[in-house]
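Residues and backbone
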Amino acid sequence: MKRFCLSFFFLSVVISSLAQDPEFSQYYAAPLYLNPAFTGTTNDHRFIANYRNQWPNVARGYSTYAFSYDFNLANLNSGFGFLATQDQAGSAGMRSTQFNFLYSYKWHISSKWIISSGLNFGYAVRSIDFNRLIFGDQLQFDNSGTTPSSDPSLYNLGAAHYFDFKAGALAYNKNFWLGFSAQHLNEPNRSLINQYAFVPMKISIHGGVRIPLYNGAFKLDRIPVLSPSFVYKRQANFEQLDVGAYLLYDPIVFGLWYRGIPVSKNADNSPSQDAAVIILGFQFSRLEVVYSYDFTVSKLGPASGGAHELALKYRLEIPVNQKSRKKDKFIPCPTFNRKE
């Protein structure tokens, strides 16, 4: 029994170590998490908070939090940002916390096009709540697992501290964007048992287009805007494709998404599909509030409870330097800006 419990625990740790990163369905509302090249692609101070609760009907499911802040320095063609994330999962309280400092530099290759390159320097801590673990010698006395363990394997457990580096590039104009990012460039080791559990590199390709749905002779205060978009990610043997569109009719935001690759097959020969996502929110002058729900379409089914996600965004205006003309040339990325 003791050998079985220890083997099961170590196997669970290894599987968790090799699993893919947590992801947000509202990837457009977590731009710095997706690609460091998005840093400073807005003409305001930008504050964003994200929360995701995945599979709430499963005991101790996945909870992910993120907070970011970034701004643009037009005089230096640069963007600076900060990103903090925390992911918690499992009955043993597996927790990963990471702090990131981001920088981007922008080239105005023409009057309408900008190329942004970005770097992310991160420091992370991964830990587990030892008080929630039950070892084999505890079960020898009673089934509750409350008896203290004297197993020497307990002392091999510890927190993992590691650096994590990311890079990305982005090309955009007022109506189109296309980006590429590579995360975990150094493939850090985050094992909790003094062994090796390297995080595989993750590659992401993402893009979209902004399409105004009115181009008539009359000038309207607001017009509907459609934004079809996609994001493709690959990490080790895992791959994910999100396709969908957002409809903005100020102040309402509505979106429909599908996550999956039906032409691809899982190990059990079932279609590779995960969820259908519905998004609804509001954009005000400075504040944006968006909620989304994932309808699970994989074999896990609706019993999982899907996934709830909430994003809050606040923009604080950057004062314009009248002596600088670079401010007038700045083009915000259309992925996350408002109707302008």
About this structure: The radius of gyration is 22 Å. The chain has one domain: 2-329.
